[in-house]
Amino acid sequence: DYDALRDAAHSLKSSSANLGAMSLSAAAKRVELAARERSLERPAVAVALIANEFARARQALLGLRREQQA
């Protein structure tokens, strides 16, 4: 379902940019644009990239939280 994928990727792109997770935002933007054009090539690779960038952003945010609590 390209429409649902586009909407989810758009939300993730915006939310991650608001948090400063620009690599995650860029990965979501690529998926959003591909879904809009209905031409997502290698979807498993796109999902893996987003998952990897999400994990990196999560670790960075958790590190910031730990610093603030110290």
Compose a concise summary of this entry.
The protein is an all-alpha fold.
Layout of helices and strands, plus pairs?
Layout: H1 2-18, H2 22-36, H3 43-69
Distance between the termini: 45 Å
What does the overall shape look like? elongated
Q: What number is the mean pLDDT?
A: 94
Task: Report the β-strand fraction as a percent range.
Answer: under 5%
Taking the sheet with the most strands, its summary is: none
Q: Label the structural class.
A: mainly alpha
Q: What is the number of E strands?
A: 0
Q: Count of helices? A: 3
Listing every helix as H and every strand as E from the N terminus to the C terminus, the arrangement reads: HHH
Low-confidence stretches: none
Helix % is over 70%
Instruction: Report Rg.
Output: 13 Å
Describe this structure in words.
- There is one protein chain.
- The chain is mainly alpha-helical and 70 residues long.
- The chain is 84% helix and 0% strand.
- It contains three helices and no strands.
- The protein has helices spanning 2-18, 22-36, 43-69.
- Helix 1 (2-18) packs antiparallel against helix 2 (22-36) and helix 2 packs antiparallel against helix 3.
